[in-house]
Write a structure and sequence with these properties.
It is built from 14 helices and twelve strands.
Length: 336
């Protein structure tokens, strides 16, 4: 097994530095039988992009396919190369291929270069820090470009915080929707949650520790205190915790015992009665006024600029836009 101190440097064609572990031939030879066994279970054709899920907390969840692919791939495109090598070290894996950094800030620029290598027969493995690439992680750009260029893409499935939380929530799993992270700003989050009021499917969100209290307040305002939910934190880790109960109860638990670590929120879908009562409708002038005030305060905008944005974002039922002067009058009325 290679330690972090045994890293040397390899320069990519674009001048970037890739950290590569020194090869320990004695250890490598001793592991050859195990490596051959792992490789025999994996058949990935040459000239393929492979998206592989990595552990979300417990390294023991790494699949045999992931291990074999880390050893066999010609190129490994990793969201964070340091985390990749740490994972490889804990798995006892030697990464034989070239490793490049592939993250949100460069994935579009590097996608075609990687696919050029796929065209020559290379296996390109794409991994994120945790979970499946493309799910709130890099990977979508290379998948889209591969499809456009007619190149094969496959995946090695594995750990998923979304599915783990859904399975552990105790809420219906036959129909669900994944909504990613909730909006950061209060006004946008409130408006977004309102659009989900009639949603009958179980809803899954990601949330961060520093926003969870505010988000729980907004969930309470949007869905009321009795909608069932689960707050799942530190999934698969030693301190895994699932808090189940109505929104009002979970909100109070967040106040009394603020949760730490990465978390997933699972919200029960609307009943037929709730869905019918919350059928989508256009915002009233008063609602637009309230939203405009929130937008102006949070974004540091003039109230007239905030009104212009809100009116543009929320057309009336017939597709026309609300009268800005009426919204401004409603703002003045609210402010007294």
């Amino acid at each position: 097994m290679t330690s972090a101190d045994e890293l040397n440097e390899q320069y990519d064609a674009d001048g970037s530095v890739t950290q590569v572990p020194e090869r320990n031939d004695e250890v490598h030879a001793g592991e050859s039988a195990a490596t051959q066994s792992r490789e025999s279970a994996v058949t990935i054709p040459a000239g393929t992009v492979v998206l592989a899920a990595t552990p979300i907390g417990n390294v023991g969840d790494a699949s045999a396919r992931l291990v074999a692919l880390l050893e066999r791939a010609d190129i490994v495109a990793a969201e964070d190369t340091r985390r990749l090598y740490d994972l490889a070290r804990r798995l006892g894996v030697y990464v034989n291929g070239r490793v490049i950094a592939y993250h949100d800030h460069n994935e579009r620029d590097k996608a075609d270069g990687l696919l050029d290598q796929v065209e020559t027969g290379a296996i390109v493995l794409v991994v994120s820090d945790a979970g499946m690439p493309t799910i709130n992680d890099p990977g979508l750009a290379i998948v889209r470009r591969a499809i456009e260029r007619g190149l094969p893409v496959t995946c090695a499935p594995g750990p998923s915080a979304v599915l783990d939380a859904l399975a552990l929530s105790g809420l219906p799993t036959d129909r669900f929707c994944y909504e990613g992270f909730l909006p950061r700003k209060h006004s946008e989050r409130v408006q977004y949650l309102r659009t989900l009021l009639p949603e009958r499917r179980t809803i899954v969100f990601y949330e961060t520790p520093h926003r969870i209290a505010d988000s729980m307040d907004d969930l309470l305002d949007a869905f009321g205190p009795n909608r069932p939910m689960a707050l799942c934190r530190e999934l698969t880790k030693d301190y895994e915790q699932i808090r189940r109960g109505p929104i009002g109860e979970i909100r109070q638990s967040v106040i009394d015992d603020p949760p730490r670590g990465e978390m997933v929120l699972v919200i029960g879908g609307a009943s037929n009665e709730e869905a019918e009562a919350a059928a989508p409708s256009t915002l009233s002038v008063d609602d637009m006024a309230v939203l405009s005030i929130d937008r102006a305060l949070e974004d540091g905008l003039r109230i007239k600029d905030a009104i212009a944005q809100v009116v543009q974002e929320h057309p009336l039922a017939d597709g026309s836009l609300a009268n800005r002067k009426q919204v401004y009058a409603a703002v003045l009325k609210i402010k007294g």
